[in-house]
Every structure is written in C-alpha cells, then in structure tokens.
Description:
The chain has helices at residues 17-27, 44-50, 64-77, 97-106, 138-155, 171-179, 186-196, 223-239; strands at residues 4-10, 31-38, 54-58, 82-85, 110-116, 167-169, 200-205.
Amino acid sequence: MNRYLAIVPAHNEVGAIAATIREINAAAREFDVLVIDDGSTDDTAAVALAAGARVVSLPFNVGIGAAVQCGYIYALMRGHEVAVQVDGDGQHDPRDIPRLLAVLNAERDTHLVTGSRFLPASGEGQAGQPGDGHRSTAYRRLGIAVFARVVSLLTHQRVTDPTSGYRMTDRIGIELFARDYPSDYPEVEAIVLAHTYALRTREVGVRMRPRSSGRSKISTSVSIYYLLKVLLAVSVSALRTHPQTEPGPLSEAAP
C-alpha cells in the first residue's frame, strides 16, 4: 500500500474512468487509486477494476459529498498520509498532482491545497488570469465569483476557485473530512469547514479540461437555486461552533 491515495468519485463515468485511472498511474505512481462508484447504472465499477483501481461500490447514488467522504474514511482506516480528489470525468489533469504534493510537503503548516482554474498552471501570476484549459459558462463564472468573494471574507484570505473539486489534504485533513464532510454541493462549504478547524489552505494554478463523458448536474435552470442553497449552507457552517483544535480520529467502531 502506498502512503498516498487518489480518491476518484464516479457516477456513470464508463466513458472516462479508465483513461482517468491510467493518467493518474502515469503521472503519480506513488498514489493508490480508489474509485468510489456512486451507484452507477453502467459498467463504471467493472471498467475501473479492469484498469487496476481499487473500487468501492455504493448500493445507490448518495451524491458527491457522501461519496468523497467514503473515500476519506477509507484513507483514514487504511493509514494513508495524503489524499487527493480527482474527478472521474476527465476534467482534472493528473499531471498536476505532483505539483500539489510538492506544495503540501514544502509548506508544513498547510493542510489543504486546492487546484484553481483561475490561477496560471505555472503557479505564478495574479488571481483572475486563467491558465490553459477549460473555462465554464458565464452563469457558472458569476456564481464562482460570488462564492469566491463570500469565502474570502469568511476565511480572511483570498480564494479564487471555491468550487474546485481538485484538492489534496494531509492526514489532519483526512481525519477531519472522514468525520465531517458536506453532503450536497460540498466544495465551497468544505473550505469554510477547514477554516473553522484552523486548517491552513492554499491554492495552486492547475489545468482544467472539458469533461470527456457524462453531464454536469448543475444546469443553467438550477443555477440560482444552487447559488442560494450553497450560500445558505456556507453561512450556517460559518455560524456552527467548532473546536479550534486538530480533529481527533474516528471511533474504533467506525467501519
């Protein structure tokens, strides 16, 4: 078993999952690959197994937050020291994994490194200048800008891409997210959650690509609903009382 784990949530990603696994194995050989098959109705699990990944198949679709938390529980129970989230649809470029790891290892007081599509992939330059790769729709960019402003105010640091699901965390972050991870639209709220536990976060510019299979669940028709719901969830999370200490391990009775 490697010290590091790549958590790949996937729901009906049969068209992209094998290529994603191959790319992770090629770019980050020191990472084990765990696919969380979130109740897929296609052959995602079988294709992932054939590609060499470990697979946890959930009996029904539980959503991205619960699926990712399942991966963190696995990482905690198996003793992994670092975990990275990589989408199963091909949007995240695994060649950036070593760069995220280098930042996490170099900055010992940093616990969570997020890949930002709004910072150049070289890691240099100013926020708001996107690097190469995929750009989302105007509606999504507006929503991201609102979330970035709110999260920056709540965390007292500049956040450029709060909706990015491309993130890497150390053992402390693994323990926190195995215990408590937002369930519905988790990316934004997870940053606030990390802040409330005094976990230092950092952004690094990464490449983003168009998804190679599947379709986003967040369409234009639900953008306003999504915006309001996430803002409410973030506000509630910020008001919750959290101990300002490192999260302890899960109970030994946990699965």
